[in-house]
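PROTEIN DESIGN WORKSHEET
SECTION A - STRUCTURE
LENGTH: 224
TOKENS:
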């Protein structure tokens, strides 16, 4: 008799406990960041991405809730130009900082991308990088930090990297000015082994994009 009397109460307690556990799991749900077309994420929270020429770009990132510093480039190939020509348009680095909430999905976008090649050439000089939730822009940055040209690209293969420098500067700014209860992200130490593994891929990409005159300069630079 006692078991029958207390069974409804026990079921209610189990139901409440289950709801509580479900709520806790939701409180710690991850954040999903989806990257639009023609965007190449180069550094995220101090860590390099998409460094290999032979691997597809990473278009989805699963992150922890909180502040994130994202550095990316406008990256688009026009392979249908007149005369069977093609051109690879790539902007300088653009960095945006966004506070991402748990259990939400965001888009990393470059609003206003033109389709016409001539307009895209102008756009690549000063793109806008934005983090969007639904139809709301959470954070955005306009303009790009230009890289130092061909030999800057060569230097990045052997230790220095403009994108990483810009990302680390933004991280330092976030950590220095954060007054909220949300913990700012910390710099990520890059692995020297993975950097060495990507050096050949990066060099091949640089070589393929170089003009004949630039390739001759590369040869002279290597022979020094």
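SECTION B - SEQUENCE
RESIDUE ASSIGNMENT:
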């Amino acid at each position: 008799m006692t078991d029958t009397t207390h069974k409804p109460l026990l079921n209610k307690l189990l139901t409440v406990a289950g709801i509580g556990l479900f709520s806790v799991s939701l409180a710690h749900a991850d954040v999903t960041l989806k990257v639009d077309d023609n965007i190449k994420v180069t550094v995220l929270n101090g860590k390099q991405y998409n460094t290999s020429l032979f691997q597809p770009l990473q278009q989805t990132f699963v992150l922890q809730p909180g502040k994130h510093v994202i550095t990316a480039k406008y990256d688009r190939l026009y392979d249908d130009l007149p005369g069977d020509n093609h051109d690879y348009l790539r902007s300088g680095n653009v960095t945006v900082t966004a506070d991402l909430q748990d259990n939400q999905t965001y888009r990393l976008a470059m609003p206003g991308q033109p389709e016409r090649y001539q307009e895209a050439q102008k756009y690549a000089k000063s793109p806008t990088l934005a983090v969007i939730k639904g139809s709301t822009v959470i954070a955005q940055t306009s303009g790009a930090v230009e890289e130092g040209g061909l030999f800057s690209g060569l230097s990045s293969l052997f230790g220095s990297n403009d994108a990483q420098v810009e990302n680390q500067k933004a991280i330092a700014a976030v950590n220095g000015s954060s007054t909220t209860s949300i913990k700012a992200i910390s710099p990520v130490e890059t692995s020297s082994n993975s950097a060495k593994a990507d050096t050949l891929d990066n060099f091949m990409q640089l070589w393929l994009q170089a003009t004949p005159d630039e390739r001759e300069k590369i040869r002279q630079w290597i022979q020094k």
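SECTION C - NOTES
The two ends are 94 Å apart (CA to CA).
Confidence is low (pLDDT under 50) at residues 19-26, 155-160, 180-184, 186-197.
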